[in-house]
Design brief:
Distance between the termini: 86 Å
Radius of gyration: 32 Å
Number of strands: 0
Shape: elongated
Length: 82
């Protein structure tokens, strides 16, 4: 269900009457800038996703040796003496 030629002309005339001939180029310029910014952002997101897919995953973190005690390596707490 699209617009036929007559309907399209009617819509363009209504837009011209509502906004005036001077405002239409401003709207078109703003719309063009918006589309350009959208394409740029879309391209950046696509590039970032492609880089993330191509990047090898980071190595898993090393586990502490089995004989160490985690509490012995921590700093003693400062408890005030009464």
């Amino acid at each position: 269900m699209g617009l036929s030629g007559g309907e399209l002309i009617l819509v363009l005339v209504v837009i011209l009457v509502l906004f005036g001939a001077k405002r239409i180029p401003e709207f078109a310029k703003g719309l063009g800038k918006g589309i350009t910014e959208f394409k740029k952002a879309s391209r950046e997101v696509t590039d970032e996703i492609e880089r993330a897919v191509e990047e090898p995953p980071p190595p898993p973190p090393k586990a502490p040796p089995s004989g160490s005690n985690a509490e012995s390596t921590s700093q003693p707490s400062a408890v005030p003496k009464a």
